[in-house]
Amino acid sequence: MNFIKYSTAGKDYIYLTDEKANRNISELDIKALCDRHNGIGADGIFAVYQKSPKNGIITGFAQNGELLHDHSSASICAAFALNSTKSFKEQEFTYQNRNIFTVISDFYTSSPLITADLKKAADNAFSDYISRRTELGNRILTLTAIDLHSLYAVHFTENKASLDIGYLGQKLSSNSQFNKKAGLILAQKTDKNTFEIDYYENKSGNPRPVISAFAATALAACRTENAVYGEEIKVSCNNSQVFIYCKEDGSAVTQCTVKRIFSGSFDKQEYLLKPPVC
Length: 278
Prior knowledge:
Number of helices: 5
Helix content: 10-25%
Mean pLDDT: 86
CATH superfamily of the largest domain: Diaminopimelate Epimerase, Chain A, domain 1
Structural class: alpha+beta
């Protein structure tokens, strides 16, 4: 079974070039492939079923074997892969019969840029919270809720290093005012329309955000007047950066680079069905 490994904004994914491949892979197989010590190593696995030259259905799994519900980073890697192999310059991705966003590849710059138009989520009460003062353990944070492919609570601070994001993230997941699925973002403004963030993923605590978290930070900045709609906003996390243009309707256009790491093949019968060696 052939694969290509890609990375973008601090996340890496295994792209199964056989679009039907992930239907035949078990949870054990996924964990073995994504294992960073004994497998290929990745944050997840995905494949794309091409309905037409401009529309594809993306399906994927996180490294723990669960369905990948936020495809923002994986779809950007997929767009790069499709552009490289099939010369698709524009791609609209669908997940569970829902359009998630359109990506456009631009290879006329010094680095491969992927532009993604992330559609706004359906209106709900969660994303109505702007600058809500919320008690999390021994701290009171001013949180702005953003629903963009995933749920996020964003707090702007002058010194994010002074806050324990692990402790606060755990407290957020048990707070009745915010959805228990929300991830926590601590954002520090370093210049005009420029932010550095720390991230805590609900339940797993993973500090490496997907693309939608970068965009959610920019949207929260615009909603709280820390940034301006329609202007370029740069959001960085752990030396990874994404450029975002926010729209007043709640959607966001992101730009980031993608890197092809390596490609190869594996034998499912001989390798995947054997538990990883510890």
